[in-house]
Structures are given as C-alpha cells and as structure tokens.
Specification:
Blueprint (H helix, E strand, L loop, with lengths): L10 H12 L5 H5 L20 H32 L5 H36 L1
C-alpha cells in the first residue's frame, strides 16, 4: 500500500518565482542580484549558539504545530484510503454474520461434548 506524498512548503519557491518573473534579464535589477556561489561548508565542530528562552518557546510551539499538522495529514490519508474501500452490501454482511454465528454454535457444541467426555473420563480414572 503506497503512502501519499506530503506536499512540500512552496511558499518560498512561489515568492522567488514571482520575483523572477517581474525582473527582466536585461534590467538593472537583474544585474544587481548576486550570483549564486558555492560557499564552503561551515565548520561543524564549532559550538552552537546558546538557545534563548524565546527561541526555546518557539521551538516547543513548532513541535506542537508539527504534531497537529502530522495528525491532520494522517486523517486526510485515512479519508482517501476509506474512499478506496469496497464496502460489502447489506445482503453480504448479513450472510457473513450468519455464517460466523453458525460456526461459533457448531464449535461451541463440539468443545462442550469433548469437555463432558474428558470430565467423565477423569472421574472414571480417579
């Protein structure tokens, strides 16, 4: 069963695309844009800056918001999957229920008879 792909945040991409459309290639604004340069990676051994209280609060709110968005996404996927289910008709459901009840009755009678037989056998032996 395949999972649905999550939609990625495209608001930043859309803003950039809109800005790029408004700026012509030959305009002075396009020339003023800095070219993308491959920057060397920062040293990963440096210590991280201390987290301020306000940033910690935002991070905890982000975790809650992330959990809510994951829950909403899960419910959307459940809804899509439930639309794909081939639900049985009322007649099929009633037939299946009847079969289950009959089999339960037969098996319970069989186990009852075996139980009585074993009970009498143990009484006879003792």
């Amino acid at each position: 069963m395949a999972r649905l792909q999550r939609k990625k945040a495209t608001s930043v991409k859309k803003k950039k695309k809109i800005e790029d459309e408004h700026v012509d290639a030959g305009s002075p604004a396009a020339a003023a844009k800095p070219a993308l340069v491959n920057m060397p990676a920062k040293d990963s051994r440096k210590k991280a800056a201390p987290v301020k209280k306000a940033e910690a609060v935002k991070a905890s709110q982000g975790k809650i918001g992330g959990a809510i968005s994951k829950s909403v996404q899960f419910l959307r996927e459940v809804r899509v999957e439930l639309k794909k289910v081939a639900w049985p008709t009322r007649k099929q459901t009633m037939g299946s229920t009847l079969v289950v009840l009959v089999l339960v009755l037969i098996i319970s009678l069989f186990l009852g008879v075996v139980d009585l037989a074993l009970q009498n056998l143990i009484r006879f032996v003792l």
